Amino acid sequence: MSTMIETRDLRFAYPAEEQEQPVYALKGVDLRIEKGSFVVVLGHNGSGKSTLAKTMNAVLLPAGGKVYVEGLDTLDERLLLEIRQRVGMVFQNPDNQIVANVVEEDVAFAPENLGVPTEEIRRRVDEALKAVGMSGFVTHAPHLLSGGQKQRIAIAGVIAMEPACVVLDEATAMLDPVGRQEVLSTIHRLNREKGITVVLITHHMNEAEEADRVIVMDAGQVAMDGTPQEVFSCVDRLCSMGLTVPDTVDLLDRLQKDGVQVPLDAITVEACADAIAAAFSAAPEN
Amino acid sequence: MLKDITLGQYFPGNTVAHKLDPRTKILLVVLYIVALFTAKSLLTYGIMALCLAVCVRISRVGIRQLVRGLKPVLFIIIFTGVLNLLFTPGETELFSWGFLHVTGEGLRNAVFMVLRIMLLIMGTFLMTYTTSPISLTDGLERLLNGLKRFHVPVHELAMMMSIALRFIPTLIEETDKIMSAQKARGADFESGNLIQKAKALIPILVPLFISAFRRADELATAMECRCYHGGEGRTKLHVLRYESRDYVALTIGVLVVAAVAVLRRLGL
Predict the structure, then answer these.
(1) Is residue A284 part of a domain?
(2) I need a labelling partner for A256 at 20 to 30 A (CA). Which of A216, A284, B193, B251 fits?
């Protein structure tokens, strides 16, 4: 598989007050994100996960090290539009990223900026709205939609650029459970059906359940990196970084500490139930 | 209270008045204003009123909605009327009381002035009622495109206008929220004199402004992420195109202005 985004010894510091040492939000991050994968980046507040996301399409430029998007260096100003077209970004607050007051005009915003011909814009807008399941809302006013719907419009606005990768920077944080589920199933479908690489930044552990890969950020560095099963098995380590584990893993961990022989890598509810049932039927004397 | 704001209110519809190109409508309003200021007699004012009535009929906008637009400027209308009535010098004095003299010319001036303002406001409101804000800004941008040569940032101005329109409902909602939050902390917005009421607005305005700045910052980042880089090389989802009905409407507009000008020359 080819590489979508690569960071090499990436460092970043926010501007500091005079006479103060700049505080590094990223302290040497080396990552390779494969094309077509679904990667979840976890971390508590201030772990550097949002900063990492913003370096992926040159919203923030590295203070040290490099970021490559399909081999394009984000420090090269001439490549800026090309990089941003390849890596779309969805932010936390849907209200603050919708530009127009008609849904179709907003989705058309990015292709309009890219100078796409009118008929092609029409096709892209219709396709993007279909991809996020909002085809019936073409001429609606965005401020009358629900949070989940608005966020799906924001995703459509990014999809209309036909990017290879979409980075969601805590895009589900302000949504209610229904809205969050809408957004999650939308991006999973985009990943499966269109092969779009997804980087999902979040602090909701259960959003990581179905990911291909989980990266845990702590104090500006990659603390853990692996499949959800591998990462969530390290319950104590996650807790020491101020993170919780999914409820299923938490239950299995408690059972294990009470002496029941269960594996920790059964993350989904079904797998967890099966594991517990198997453990008890294997040892009926418990 | 916040629900009453009707800035740029638009009543969707499917009439010819709605379908006209926004540029045509803006030009027609300009022609209409020129004609209104050329009009000087009962006959010409009558023609203008008739034109407006025909347009209103075509657009199917309710008269009540149109008249409601006059409410905020009622004071200015009355003020102008009274001023013209009392302070126009003239020959034929109808009656006088102390230093106030009501003359025939004054009465005539007052009536025409009030008519002119009312027609002016109703005409422009008819345009905003039948044109969505987005196509209005679009039309303005295209009409003023020539000014780019003189370094007028036409695209930027149009962009700012459409973003402002986009954020009006969002900020109204936010104001409502902040007001509730401050009321929950015991803030009182209703009692006291004018100065006290104005002071009570500070705890609303400060958070509103801070939040607006934060929103602007986030929006700018989001726009950059969607490859916004100014008006250069930008294409459009909806391209404005003049249709035959636009030419017809503009021709009628020009003819009306010409007719009013000729009538004025003839002293009618």
Answers:
(1) no
(2) A216
pLDDT in tens, A174-218: 888 899 999 999 999 999 999 999 999 998 888 888 899 999 999
pLDDT digits (tens, 9 = 90+) for B3-46: 444 455 677 788 888 889 999 999 999 999 999 998 888 899 99
What integer pLDDT is reported at residue A284 of this predicted model? 58
Q: Which of A68, A100, A105 is nearest to A86 (CA)?
A: A68
Domain that holds residue A51: 3-245
Is A59 inside a domain boundary?
yes
Residue of chain A whose Cα is closest to the Cα of B218: A96
Nearest CB to B237 within list A91, A112, A143: A112
User: Is the predicted ipTM greater than 0.90, yes or no?
Assistant: no
Q: What is the predicted pLDDT for the residue at A249? A: 86
The mean pLDDT value of chain B amounts to: 87
Is B215–A96 a contact, with Cβ atoms under 8 angstroms apart? Answer: yes
* Contact yes or no for A101 and B215 at CB 8 A: no
Side-chain half-sphere CA neighbours of B14 within 13 A: 0
Asked if residue A279 belongs to a domain, the reply is: no
Contact: A118, B229; criterion CB under 8 Å:
no
For chain A, how many structural domains are there in total?
1
